[in-house]
Write a structure and sequence with these properties.
The structure holds three protein chains of three kinds. By secondary structure, chain A is α+β, with helices and mostly antiparallel strands. Helix content of chain A is 23%, strand content 27%. Chain A has six helices and 20 strands. In chain B, 62% of the residues are buried. Helices cover 36% and strands 18% of the residues of chain B. By secondary structure, chain C is an alpha/beta fold. The N and C termini of chain C lie far apart (46 Å). Chains in contact: A-B, A-C, B-C. Strand 9 of chain A pairs antiparallel with strand 10 of chain B, so a sheet runs across the interface.
């Protein structure tokens, strides 16, 4: 033995204080001869030498703290029986204080707990069902659970597999289409939409008139005269905010889905300016360079689906706006003019309004103004 | 349910440069009731505080008086509060528990010490048949606000019967609280709350960490809540649940996992019974993985209960089966083979890897 | 503070503290007996001293010294027959060694190795020493009941300390010895201290021996520092027990000259003057004086004995320290007669874990 290290002198003691050395360096000691006294947290004990030999060095003085496992002394002419311990001056016992932070209970104590609803992307299925899904190659993210709290059952998985086998794989919506799906579903569940249909006689239009610009102008005029539909409605607080400036969202169809860029301040700008602005927006949508802020903040919306097909529609309002005007395909129609049948060009209109925010009368007056303006030369 | 969420931090004072300076510091801090203490000293502080603040508190047990307890948990109490309140009993554990029931029934607050948990077994009849039932069988006419303290657990090379972890036995007894601190701060706060609790509390002190760390404690008589887990470390990948001395290895494992890029949450159960399942469930719902670490034998323990509750209440959130790191279903070996029995930090890390590699 | 160690009327004694004979020695005590007893006491004292040193130097774990108790253990051991059964507590090293427990086995037990309890020969049916206080007394009563039931004319010796007499277990066992007339001799080593609690705080009775009255058995108080007195009391009690005359409670009054265990510090709770006074009653010294005065023990014999005893104890220490470790799974192998499926699975776990740790630590022993 070369180094005699402080053993655990009690039960689970970490350190001891040297009270007194009974020997000094250079002394020769016998086995079991008491060589020092130490005080632990429990007792003062005399420590004997574990072997006979000559003492080379004592580590530590009276009053020093020594940790269990640290050397007390070194014997001369002895083999080092310890590999790898660097022995230096025994430092005074560490009185290091540990820092501790903890939370009483859970860090999320105030989060309400409702199984299945907190983590919407969490798949609620037992391991057995997950194994079944793996075997049937069913993507559980595509399966709606019919069990308690949306738990996916074996039936759900098997049906999904059957549907997949019969009709092919469904694809998860991404990007704009995904946003559209979510927005429309939300709008549908929230808004109380009512749609008015009518035709406006545009016989008076000059040749080459720009129908979109006429619709933009008419909406601007109507919003000024009947401001109830140029507004934002908050269904949670049941509050309505009438907005002075008219920022018109214009639905633009693309192969990737529906975009609704916003044409700002339609009643305060020239037609030429608006046309240029609209063209820029369309181009930006087409080239996917439209910044998100250009697609937010609409106060009312126009859907000019008639450029493709369709006479009437019940367009969906996206909150917080409260109205959307749909323009159908223009057509020539025999109409009674001053008691005579004449062929005039007609423009079909569908105005959907949120009945939570506006009354039927307000909406009808709005539509009447739109029609009056559109009917003009 | 909402439980008030709070954090306590313990700051790190500078190292003390010299003994004389250290003494002065100690004196200065004592004036402000701030003490830097080990866990066993924290127990002593709490007992002292309770004896000081409540004349109904008495401390009793074997060798707790002049000797200050075999682990020195009651050091100096008899000198301050006298032999009538710090009572050396005859050597009879069943008696110690029994007279505590009697004293408590009359409104006193006995805090009894059983010298080692290995010797707690003869108290079982008193605790199971009486302490835990007195309120119920008298329909509230009598109650039993006693605390039965005992150092427990292995790893200190103590002789046979000195190293057991039989907390599950008491957790299985209706009407008893079982509380286990894992730091000086929690030892102080939980023991005070245990003493103030209107019902019997078995307060088990993990003696392996009695003197392992020092923390700064303000001796202000403030308890910490019972029936509540403590989240010692927040993480998102994995929940490590433990109590008592194994918290030490559990925190080391969390550090090691951090180096592997795994963010582990560490929960100290603290009150074994009744179990605060809300905290554990919330964490498991967040992480989807759980390892329960106990020093006690593997079968029929607190870890089994926690695993069962997770299976019942949070199965759908699990990404991998719950793992348990435990002792074995054997008597605690004599000291030479004690380390074979004890769960290690590496065992915890490995079990964590099993849950991580599974999903 | 402590019970009077002096011999007095009512307390059996033959050789007093000064080594003087106060009563004629029993017929079966001859010089050879005295020398044998003395040698054994010296041997146990050397073992005890070495065991404390081993603990103090980190080579053994907590150890309960039997310093000052050598006469009790030796007297019991000398009185017992091979077929009797010993149910010891943890200060019965001297008796166990006479019963054939090897000295290194005693060290093994306190060094944390269950193989120290693997007794052979005479001790093969003896119990290992009981650590939970007083619980062994009912085992002894059960062994005695088994002997009686089988018609075996042998007896049990069960030992405990003064503190144990406060426990219900001890009373329950003694009560049964009385009512069933069991062949059991209970020896209470009244060494005055149950860790820090003195005998006077354990019981209000004047003696511990008188507790026999409450259960209807013989009660005897002997000078526990007088090996002859202990021997004589145990021998006659065993003789009565073996022939069906019932049990005896023997209070052997001694003094714990050591700490309770190596984890204890008795200076915290008892005066040095008290311990110094108790050394005047040292059981070893008085026997040496007595034999010397008889002309039956010379300094040369003493010197030779010390050398021999040191060699024997050193050999035991070497054997203890050189004992190869147990197989890692030994602690699982003896839980049941046959390993159960859970234990078999846990053994697989243990072995895999050790392999893992050995690989990680380059073959170092597993540690947590």
């Amino acid at each position: 033995m070369r180094y005699f290290k402080l053993p655990d002198l009690g039960e689970g003691l970490q350190e001891a204080e040297i009270v007194e050395w009974h020997i000094k360096a250079g002394d020769t000691v016998a086995e079991d001869q008491v060589i020092l006294s130490v005080e632990t947290a429990k007792a003062i004990v005399d420590v004997p030498s574990p072997c006979a030999g000559k003492i080379l060095t004592l580590f530590g003085d009276a009053g020093d703290q020594v940790h269990v496992g640290e050397p007390l002394l070194e014997y001369a002419d002895a083999q080092d029986d310890d590999s790898g311990t660097v022995v230096g001056k025994v430092k005074t016992g560490s009185r290091e204080v540990e820092t501790e932070d903890f939370i009483i209970g859970s860090p999320e104590q105030n989060v309400s707990v409702q199984a299945g609803s907190r983590n919407s992307d969490r798949i609620l299925a037992t391991p057995l069902i997950k194994a079944l899904a793996k075997r049937l190659d069913v993507d559980l993210t595509q399966v709606a659970g019919s069990g308690t709290h949306g738990l996916i059952t074996a039936d759900d998985v098997e049906k999904a597999a059957q549907v997949r086998d019969d009709f092919g794989t469904a694809h998860t919506l991404k990007g704009v289409r995904r946003v559209m799906a979510k927005n429309m579903a939300r709008a549908h569940s929230e808004v109380v939409g009512v749609t008015l249909y009518d035709d406006v006689d545009i016989h008076a239009w000059k040749k080459g008139e720009d129908p979109t610009m006429r619709l933009v102008r008419a909406i601007g005029v109507a919003c000024k005269e009947a401001p109830q539909l140029n507004a934002w409605f908050d269904g949670n607080n049941l509050s309505l905010r009438l907005i002075e400036r008219v920022d018109l969202g214009i639905a633009v169809d693309t192969p990737d889905g529906l975009f609704v860029p916003v044409l700002r301040d339609i009643s305060g700008r020239s037609v030429k300016d608006l046309r240029k602005g609209l063209d820029n927006l369309r181009e930006a949508v087409k080239s996917r360079k439209i910044p998100p802020q250009e697609m937010s903040g609409a106060t009312i919306t126009l859907s000019n689906f008639g450029t493709i097909a369709g006479r009437y529609a019940n367009p969906v309002i996206v909150p917080p706006t409260v109205a959307i005007l749909g323009a159908g395909r223009m057509r020539d129609e025999v109409v009674a003019v001053d008691g005579k049948p004449l062929v005039h060009r007609m423009l079909p209109l569908s105005l959907t309004f949120d009945h939570r925010a506006a009354s039927g009368g307000e909406a009808a007056r709005f539509l009447a103004i739109v029609m009056r303006d559109l009917a003009q030369t | 349910m909402t439980v008030e969420s709070a954090t306590r931090s313990v700051s790190r004072p500078g190292k003390k440069p010299s003994d004389s300076k250290a003494t002065k510091d100690a004196e200065a801090t004592k004036r402000d009731n701030v003490h830097v203490v080990t866990m066993v000293e924290a127990v002593n502080l709490a007992l002292r505080r309770a004896l000081n603040d409540d004349p109904d508190v008495v401390v009793l047990g074997e060798d707790i008086g002049i000797n200050g307890g075999v682990f020195r948990a009651t050091l100096g109490l008899r000198e301050t509060f006298g032999y009538k309140r710090v009572i050396d009993t005859p050597l009879a554990e069943a008696l110690i528990a029994g007279i505590s029931v009697g004293m408590a029934s009359q409104g006193m607050r006995p805090v009894a010490e059983i010298q080692f948990m290995g010797f707690i077994n003869s108290t079982v009849e008193q605790m199971l048949s009486h302490a835990g039932r007195l309120r119920n069988r008298t329909r509230g006419r009598l109650s039993c606000p006693m605390v039965l303290r005992a150092p427990f657990g292995g790893g200190i090379h103590a002789p046979e019967h000195h190293s057991e972890s039989t907390e599950a036995m008491f957790a299985h007894m209706p009407g008893l609280r079982v509380v286990i601190p894992s730091s000086p701060t929690r030892a102080y706060g939980l023991l005070l709350s245990a003493i103030q609790d209107p019902d019997p509390v078995v307060f088990l002190e993990p003696k392996r960490i009695y003197r392992m760390v020092r923390q700064q404690i303000t001796d202000d008589g403030q308890g910490l809540p019972l029936d509540t887990c403590f989240t010692l470390r927040q993480g998102k990948d994995l929940t490590l649940v433990s109590w008592g001395a194994m918290i030490h290895e559990t925190l080391l494992a969390a550090k090691e996992l951090e180096q592997q890029g795994v963010d582990a949450e560490v929960i100290d159960v603290a009150t074994i019974s009744p179990l605060d399942m809300d905290t554990i469930r919330r964490s498991v719902e967040k992480t989807g993985r759980c390892v329960v670490i106990q020093e006690a034998p593997r079968s029929f323990g607190v870890g089994s209960e926690i695993s069962a509750r997770i299976a019942e209440e949070a199965l759908l959130y699990l990404r991998a089966p719950v793992q348990r790191v435990t002792g074995y279903d054997t008597p605690m070996p004599y000291p030479q083979n004690e380390s074979l029995y004890m769960p290690s930090t590496r065992d915890i890390v490995e079990a964590a890897r099993v849950t991580l590699d599974n999903a | 503070m402590f019970d009077d160690l002096d011999q007095a009327p009512g307390k059996l004694g033959f050789i007093d503290a000064r080594g003087k004979s106060v009563r004629t020695l029993p017929d079966d005590i001859d010089v050879a007996w005295l020398q044998k007893s003395y040698q054994h006491m010296v041997r146990i004292r050397q073992l005890d001293k070495k065991a404390v040193a081993l603990q103090r130097t980190g080579q053994m774990h907590t150890y309960p010294s039997c310093l000052g108790q050598e006469a009790i253990g030796t007297g019991i051991g000398m009185a017992m027959q091979n077929e009797d059964v010993l149910v010891p507590y943890y200060r019965d090293q001297a008796t166990q060694a006479i019963r054939g427990v090897r000295l290194e086995q005693i060290l093994q037990v306190w060094g944390g190795d269950e193989r120290g309890n693997l007794f052979e020969g005479v001790a093969a049916r003896d119990f290992p020493n009981s650590v939970p206080i007083g619980t062994q007394m009912s085992h002894a009563a059960g062994i005695a009941a088994a002997m009686k039931s089988r018609g075996i004319r042998q007896a049990v010796v069960a030992n405990c300390g003064d503190g144990a007499t406060s426990r219900g277990d001890v009373y329950e066992a003694l009560n049964l010895v009385g009512v069933w007339q069991l062949p059991m001799v209970a020896v209470v080593n009244n060494n005055q201290w149950a860790i820090s609690v003195p005998r006077s705080l354990q019981t209000a009775t004047r003696t511990l021996a008188e507790k026999a009255l409450a259960v209807g058995i013989e009660g005897v108080q002997v000078d526990g520092n007088d090996v002859v007195a202990v021997y004589q009391a145990v021998r006659s009690a065993l003789a009565r027990a073996r022939c069906g005359k019932g049990g005896t409670l023997i209070e052997a009054v001694s003094y714990r000259l050591s700490d309770h265990t190596t984890a204890d510090d008795a200076t915290r709770y008892r005066e040095a003057s008290e311990v110094n006074k108790a050394w005047d009653f040292d059981p070893v010294k008085r026997l040496q004086t007595y034999m010397h005065d008889l002309g039956q023990w010379t300094p040369a014999q003493e010197q030779a004995l010390l050398v021999a005893v040191k060699q024997e104890v050193d050999a035991a220490v070497t054997a203890y320290l050189k004992t190869p470790p147990q197989a890692a799974d030994d602690f699982m192998a003896y839980v049941f007669a046959n390993m159960t499926p859970p234990l078999l699975a846990q053994r697989e776990h243990l072995l895999a874990r050790l392999e893992r740790d050995n690989a990680a630590q380059g073959g170092k022993h597993h540690d947590s």
